[in-house]
Here is the input.
Amino acid sequence: MRVLVGMLLIMVSLNPIQAQSDSTYTDLKLAIKAGDSVKVLILKKQGLTEIPKEVFEFRNLEILELRKNEITFIPDEISKLTQLKELDLSRNTMDSISPELGALSELTLLNLSHNKFNRIPKSIGLLKKLQYLNLDYTNIDKVPIEIQGCKNLTFFNVRHSYMEEQEARKIRRLLPEDCVKLFPLTCKCNS
Here is the structure.
């Protein structure tokens, strides 16, 4: 039942990304012309190897979808996106994440699944509004104890990762009671 609720949360959370409106852009050149009116930017499957520097100039950006590219890291400039609520960098080749990610105080959804990194920064705990965190199919084996700062987390996924049972048990205790927690199948801590 909890997994079903988590999946419903995912679908509801991702619906705004798929919505089209005057403030939604799928072309970076058109978005640059629109400037501060850009609220949603979807640049999936564009062969990007880094987050374009122009993205960090969209002061009112709320949703950024960059999945299915070849992006290798989250740069420090991510901290400029102070209005960002949803960030999807899934299915890239990221091996590092800037601690400046913690400056995104409005973030509610963070999807970093299907990447190569093995650590997330301690600043993850600064994301007080974060509700959804997907780290599935990553090389992660440890999560900083600062994760306990994410008091609004309702979905946490490290199912296909390198996390060992002892670490998973420790993290499980740090997460909110009502949070859907998906740990590696080899871990006896999923029940």
